[in-house]
Amino acid sequence: MSNVIETERLILSAPKLSEVPVLFEFLGDNLAMHHTHWDSSIAECRRRIAVHERKRRHDGFAPWTVRDRQTKRVIGWGGLYDDPFDPGWGIELAYYFHPSVWGNGYATELCKAALDVADQHLGAEKVSAFAHPENLASNALLKKMGFEYQRFVVGMHRNLYSRQRRG
User: Up-side HSE of residue 81: CA atoms within 13 Å toward CB?
Assistant: First the structure.
């Protein structure tokens, strides 16, 4: 599998620690991330990225830095991962975008690319995802991507979804 994946409008690549300050602009924004975890400091963001990159070396996958293909600007972070901070859920899909690009369909494009990797390259039988009940856009996106609602996870205050392998 390539280290860089290009979609129609996105470039997906392994994050570099030098990108942490620009990733922290939204991963550390508690308003932008109010439906999920947010990093309270650049150090915490750097640690999160570094831990996921160690998992990439072990598992062969982890969240990507997401760039706008036209401008090369970092606009998001996400993809597949086996959460090192909350293990036991198997392969998960997640996506986080800078608020300035919300509503442009980038999450859909990222999800399609990630699910193709899960199906075609990893042979993952199942991919899970979580969405806060009040995050209507994420809940709708997961359903659109073929995920089925499983249950509400009380301790996480999240809806759990799963999708079975395609093709």
Answer: 23
Range of the domain at 35: 4-123
Residue-wise pLDDT for 24-78, tens only, equals 999 999 888 888 889 999 999 999 999 999 999 999 999 999 999 999 999 999 9
CATH code of the domain in which 110 resides:
3.40.630.30
Placement of tokens 């800078």 in the chain:
98
What total number of domains does the chain contain?
Answer: 1
The 10s digit of each residue's pLDDT in 78-91 is 999 999 999 999 99
Q: What is the DSSP letter of 63?
A: P
* Residue 128, in any domain of the structure: no
* DSSP letters for 109-120: HHHHHHHHIIII
